């Protein structure tokens, strides 16, 4: 983490340039404290949460043993408020620091962490869109963690297609609304950790137009709030059931019924989807960070096992004399799996921390051009952060099980729990197919590739600076070559899509993965460059990062050749009804 923040990205200087008063020692102090909390308090509850799960008792969800005490410690330590605004009682830390903390929380206990993560999103959404009165009512309590938040979009009949939602919001005489309808797959929709839960709900007013143009956003608390800001009686919000899931057993995923519940409009009528996108995009970036945390813990478990497991003889050049077997880490294929995990986690960390810096630059920089560039990069790359990183986390968790062999398939070692917990990531916050379509159609083709060209120009400009440095030729040539291939592909896809309405859907997933490989290649090249410039001052850790970067370019980046071919495949073959008729 420190290597990425301080040596590769120079985060403190970047933040200071945006007017944020922070230094390296402050950043390190906060993340060291968070790491201690995660290891000492949160991580020991991971297996407990998986084993015991949540229980619905009446209309209240009882969380696994120890979850409530850990949450109380989390609040007492001020951790929910670290990157919230000072005016709401927050610590005022940049989002970059908050992302590092969220990664550690996800590694330690993803189920428990979900009770905290959507609260941060609700805070940001209300801060960006709510009236001053609503901000005063909700933001200090969300910042402190005294209250938690949710995001209520999906309904049983419509899934991702929010234009079909039917939850209704009827105006009342006092300026509030009465919300009625059913929402499903609501993470942390009901629990016993906090005194109130703040639901952000998409609904329709009686005279709203059809489709997404008729959606409004409402804030609906679990308990009504009096004039002094104190929670009172139960509002008309009820948990009808909790989902029986493959993983994340300690996280309550709820079916919520809103029955004439009192809510208040956030922003303008019929502009709710735009307002909610603040939370949705934050959740997509958060999914990437969660995936990074899960990737990291999958690798840590596999690496520990591979070092300790003595089984079979290694290749002769790696054998330990006078013993019957060797650690499996000396098997080439085990090395391949471990280094693949490390490539995904290290590259994702470089990428996601850089994106977190863009969030801070967008918010705080005094330079309009810097803010605009940061916004462009976030708009372009958020789908990649969500989809590419989460798919790689699933790959990594699967590899972790494979490294464990038979031990990976049983519960004792935790590898199978990591896989089960990780598998949801490509599904929620918009499936990865949806993210791929968003990237290609809305973020690349819709503006003639303007934003994408900005990113490619940044990478290509960096690659040109490596000219003449023989030790960086591997990285420079690959970046320049791949940039040309992707540029030609984008031009062709734009032309083909004009006459083929299936073209985007056929090519989108391969295109997003291609961009993901390219993005991580850029950041691994920067990491390698950082190490090589240290010369004799490089430590064993630095040399490890250089070795992983070389592995990524040698073993993983060649996958882009097949992606380039598949992205050009004939849509008629994919859409041929004969292939699925039976």
From TrEMBL:
Residues 463-576 form the Acetyl-CoA dehydrogenase-like C-terminal domain. The keyword RNA-binding does not apply. Residues 151-260 form the Acyl-CoA oxidase/dehydrogenase middle domain. Its cofactor is FAD. SUPFAM superfamilies: Acyl-CoA dehydrogenase C-terminal domain-like, Acyl-CoA dehydrogenase NM domain-like. Residues 69-146 form the Acyl-CoA dehydrogenase/oxidase N-terminal domain. It comes from the Bacteria. Keywords: FAD, Flavoprotein, Oxidoreductase. The keyword Transcription regulation does not apply. Belongs to the acyl-CoA dehydrogenase family. This is Acyl-CoA dehydrogenase family protein. It comes from Rhodococcus jostii.
């Amino acid at each position: 983490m420190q290597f990425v923040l301080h040596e590769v990205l120079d985060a403190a200087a970047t933040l200071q340039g945006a007017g944020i008063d922070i230094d390296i020692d402050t950043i390190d102090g906060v993340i060291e404290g968070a790491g201690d909390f995660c290891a000492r308090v949160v991580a020991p509850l991971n297996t407990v949460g998986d084993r015991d799960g949540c229980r619905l008792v009446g209309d209240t969800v009882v969380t696994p043993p120890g979850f409530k005490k850990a949450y109380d410690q989390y609040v007492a330590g001020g951790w929910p408020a670290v990157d919230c605004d000072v005016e709401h009682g927050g610590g005022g830390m940049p989002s970059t620091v908050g992302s590092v903390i969220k990664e550690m929380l996800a590694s330690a206990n993803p189920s428990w962490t979900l009770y905290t993560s959507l609260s941060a999103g609700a805070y940001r959404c209300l801060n960006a869109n709510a009236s001053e009165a609503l901000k005063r009512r909700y933001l200090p309590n969300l910042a402190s963690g005294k209250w938690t938040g949710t995001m209520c979009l999906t309904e049983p009949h419509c899934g991702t297609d929010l234009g079909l939602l039917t939850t209704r919001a009827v105006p009342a005489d006092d300026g509030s609304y009465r919300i009625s309808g059913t929402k499903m797959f609501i993470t942390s929709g009901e629990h016993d950790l906090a005194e109130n839960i703040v639901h952000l709900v998409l609904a329709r007013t009686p005279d709203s137009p059809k489709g997404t143009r008729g959606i409004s956003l409402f804030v609906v608390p679990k308990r009504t709030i009096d004039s002094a800001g104190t929670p009172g009686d139960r509002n008309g919000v009820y948990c009808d059931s909790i989902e029986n899931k493959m993983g994340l057993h300690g996280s309550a995923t709820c079916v919520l019924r809103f029955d004439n519940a009192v809510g208040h409009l956030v922003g303008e009528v019929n502009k709710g989807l735009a307002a909610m996108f603040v939370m949705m995009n934050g959740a997509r970036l958060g999914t990437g960070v969660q995936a990074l945390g899960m990737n990291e813990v999958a690798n840590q478990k596999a690496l520990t096992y591979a070092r300790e497991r003595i089984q079979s003889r290694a290749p002769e050049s790696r054998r330990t004399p006078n013993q019957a077997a060797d650690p499996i880490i000396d098997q080439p294929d085990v090395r391949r799996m471990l280094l693949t995990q490390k490539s995904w986690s290290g590259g994702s960390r470089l990428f996601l921390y850089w994106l977190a810096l863009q969030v801070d630059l967008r918010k705080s920089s005094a330079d309009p051009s810097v803010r605009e560039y940061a916004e462009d990069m976030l708009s372009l790359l958020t789908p990649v952060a969500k989809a590419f990183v989460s798919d790689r986390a699933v790959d990594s968790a699967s590899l972790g099980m494979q490294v464990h062999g038979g031990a990976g398939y049983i519960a004792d070692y935790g590898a199978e729990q990591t896989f089960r917990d990780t598998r949801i990531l490509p599904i929620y916050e918009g499936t990865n197919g949806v993210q791929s379509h968003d990237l290609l159609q809305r973020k690349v083709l819709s503006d003639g590739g303007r934003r994408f060209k900005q990113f490619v120009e940044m990478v290509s400009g960096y690659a040109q600076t490596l000219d003449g440095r023989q030790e960086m030729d591997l990285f420079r040539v690959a970046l320049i070559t791949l940039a040309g291939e992707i540029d030609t592909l984008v031009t062709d896809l734009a032309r083909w899509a004009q006459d083929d309405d299936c073209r985007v859907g056929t090519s989108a997933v391969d295109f997003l993965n291609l961009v993901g490989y390219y993005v991580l290649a850029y950041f691994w090249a920067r990491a390698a460059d950082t190490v090589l410039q240290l010369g004799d001052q490089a430590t064993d850790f630095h040399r490890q990062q250089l070795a992983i970067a070389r592995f990524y370019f040698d073993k993983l980046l060649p996958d882009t050749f097949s992606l380039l071919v598949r992205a050009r495949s004939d849509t008629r073959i994919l859409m041929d009804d004969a292939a699925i008729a039976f």
